[in-house]
Specification:
alpha+beta; 8-stranded antiparallel barrel; 43% strand
Amino acid sequence: MLFFLALSALAAATFGSVVLYQRGEKRRLSDGGVVDPRLMLPEKKPAISVKPKKAGRSEPPKAADEPTLETLSRGDIVVDGDDDWLVTGTIAYREEKDTWALHALDGGTRQRFLEVRQRGGGLDVSFVDLVDGLPSGQLLQGLSFRGQSFALDVRGDARTSVDGEVGQRVSSGGVLAWARYSGGGGSLLLVEDEGAARRAFLGNRVPPSSLSLMSGELNRQQD
């Protein structure tokens, strides 16, 4: 008798659990909620794919900014035809709002200078050499020098600063009086009076497009 009573109680409990479960399911369905059994599983994190680095290879270095005639600086290379020139230093000139530069160049067996300045809305570029024998005293509006006649273009007073090596006979920085004279065939004569010292640069204008420039970033890193 006790066995049948226990069995009846177990059946009633089981039936009650089934009824409660069915009621719960009906309530979830009536609310519109459907539980995906996959959501009960622990979330899997996506695997991170790491590409192996190839041995013996590295990222290529970024190319250095290429110089222009307006931004030439110590270490850059100026190529004129078959001649390569290393910029060893620069004299920067300033007169009020006007600025220009005279770059000292080393060609291995020859030293010379490259003047770059704005003129008439474009660039005026000239190769010049330091020369001796210029007459002393007032040069006025023109002169004859080494068999050439030169007429005054413009003169003034400028403040200078020096970066790098430009030669002992060239400006060490300060205020100087300057004058530019033009001759035939694009010839040019630059005259500077710095205190009691007078120096002159003789040369020719060249088309800016005839020159090629290379960055001297590696040269500057080795200094």
